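Our consortium's second objective concerns turning raw sequence data into structural hypotheses that experimental partners can test. To show how far this objective has progressed, the report includes one record in full. It was chosen at random from the queue rather than selected for favorable results. The single chain below, 93 residues long, was entered without modification.
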Amino acid sequence: MSKEPNHLFHEISNLSTEQRNSKSKDIDFASTAEILKIINNEDKTIPFAVEKELPYIEKAVDNFVEDNDANTSSATIHITYICSEIQIRKKLL
């Protein structure tokens, strides 16, 4: 096995998104409505986190388009990945 997958596993396992969230610590005992509210409240933070990173997203997308043939489906996949990464990294702050 190469070092890259181990490094990636270590990096992912240390993300705050992969750690216990104090806001959902009792989710196992919550009602369906309470669970949905907890999830929804956490999901509300994502657009604000992405908004703060728009200049970086713009740069990443521009670099991607410059470096590739601008294949639409490939570009869409990479842009989605970039946004996901930003969401994960913003949770660390």
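The partners drew two points from this record. The chain has two domains: 1-41, 44-93. Residues 44-93 form one domain. Both points have been shared with the crystallography group to help prioritize constructs.
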